Amino acid sequence: MSFREVKPEELSFNPFTRIGSDWMLITAGTEKAFNTMTASWGGAGVFWGKNTVTCYIRPQRYTKEFVDAGERFSLSFFGPGYREALNLCGSVSGRDCDKIARSGLTPFFTDGVPAFEEADLVLICKKLYRAPMKPEQFFSEEGVETFYPKKDFHDLYIAEIEKALLREA
């Protein structure tokens, strides 16, 4: 495993593809206990003059407990050969099994934040803001029944990108 740190603004990063199509892992916790989950909703931009990402986590997700407990989390992005691992990490709970071991991914820690050696891009993120999505705040009902049949509305997180790590070729 070899990564090099780059400035976030130097990334060639299409969030529509990397997040929406390729997916990412949101990972948080400590070396003693951590969890990860697959996500395909999020964004990248600027907030408070800082390079930031947004991500969304449902209240029942085990990873949310780790994200809420700590100050930082990682977003890991992978090449096409990791779709099966991402499917697994998005479909089983770390409460019920060791899904990280089952996925075949290799965790590593940078500045105490868990991420994965197989990733081609890792973003180390510091939480800036969290807010629950409330149904009365939606401007349109389009998608609400489709995406929230259980009324388990996501929490929105905005986080500063503190470190961007690119896999060395």
Question: What would your notes on this structure say?
Answer:
This protein has one domain (3-167): Electron Transport, Fmn-binding Protein, Chain A (Pnp Oxidase, Chain A). The strands form two sheets. Strands 1, 2, 3, 4, 5, 6, 9 and 10 form an eight-stranded antiparallel sheet that branches. The chain has a two-stranded antiparallel sheet with strand order 7-8. It has helices at residues 15-21, 62-69, 83-91, 99-103, 144-147; strands at residues 3-6, 24-29, 34-39, 42-47, 50-57, 72-77, 107-110, 113-116, 121-132, 155-167. It has five helices and ten strands; from the N terminus they run E-H-E-E-E-E-H-E-H-H-E-E-E-H-E. Helices cover 20% and strands 41% of the residues. The chain is of the alpha+beta class. The mean pLDDT is 95. The longest helix is centred in the middle third of the chain and has 9 residues, at 83-91.
